[in-house]
What does this fold into?
Amino acid sequence: MQRVINNIVNNDILPNDVWKWNYVENIIRQTMELYSFKEIRTSIIQSQELFESYLNYYSEEENSSKRLLFNLNGVSNLSLRPEGTITVLHSLMKNNINELQSRLFYIGPMFRKQNDNKLSQIHQFGAEIIGSDDLLTDSEIILLAIKVFKSLEIFNYQLEISSFGCSKCRINYVKELNKFIRSHQDEYCPECHYNIKLNPFQVFQCENSNCENISNLAPVISDYLCKDCSSHLKKLQKMLSNLGIAFVIAPYLPTAFNYYNRTIFRFVIEENGHKTILANGGRYDFLASSVLKKKVHAIGFSADFESIIRVMENRNIFMMPKNQFKVLISPMAPNLDVFVLQIAQEMHENNIHTIILSFTKDFDYMTTIADNYEAEVDIRISDELIREGKLLVKNNLKNHQEPVQIADIGNYIQTIKKSTIIQ
Ligand SMILES: [Zn+2]
Ligand SMILES: [Zn+2]
It folds into this structure.
């Protein structure tokens, strides 16, 4: 549920939705393990300088990354983690991890300033292969993303691929692109105006039809690629075609971050007439070499949980999990707390899920709460029965109740549990 309080976009994940997040996270973890990626958990608090150094590419504005960074008020030089790739690289460098090829994935919150200056928390996962310039790796990382979506039963997306060129050939393209944008600046929408200075490529993200019409006339990167970059892109296309992977060549480069080189890709899905980006990624050899301070090649992708979960909800992909067999324990008189807790402990020893109710004289209220929990069994503890060493057990599935000896309660409940379909 999204609410804005004190300029913070509050993205709390509420109890009725958390199971969906866990479901998606489990599938991601299983898929990453299948591909032999190891999880890395980087610190949420990071140095501001780290991102200022690496997120400023191609911006005309000095310190443009500050517009994105979520700084900690009063604590200079600290920022909350805005994205995963730079933090993963920095962690490898700080911790002296020098494996020939690192295959890593992360899951966690990222913090960014939105265009309207509101501060927001998003949740992402991503995978990185650090240490290979082989085209095989470009294809593998794309196949990994495809496998994640397949496991989540998300289909009908479009895979767009392109090349971000290299430091030699991209300069000419960026020059021409900036020239084009400047000559059409007045025609772009206010949002694009804001973005242009920060990252000229963001005009390609705008869904305003007027902006789209202008951007469709912009110079195309493929006309500017050098021989090596062009051949790299062709080989990737050939490899993907041979693997039977459907893709389109995107003429433009709508990337959120500009630290890529050569292969870039994104997965886009149509949702209620809008494009939702499921994941995007690419090769970032220069970024990896700058952070790790040695020549190294790398490629990765990241995806937002919010988008993926929204797509899955809209397509009714989620299946409600089965209810756990559970027992509701309620005292029918005051001062029975110790008995209540002892019975609960006995249930926990038998791996039975419990709900404990507090005593209240308002039995209607108690019954309403009990009904809401939909427990399969109610155990009622009363003064009279306790004196006889018994509890009242109500099997809600059979609408049957009877007193049971306290000593037998564990076995008695286990027998009911086994007799139910839900186990
Ligand atoms: Zn090039
Ligand atoms: Zn626009």
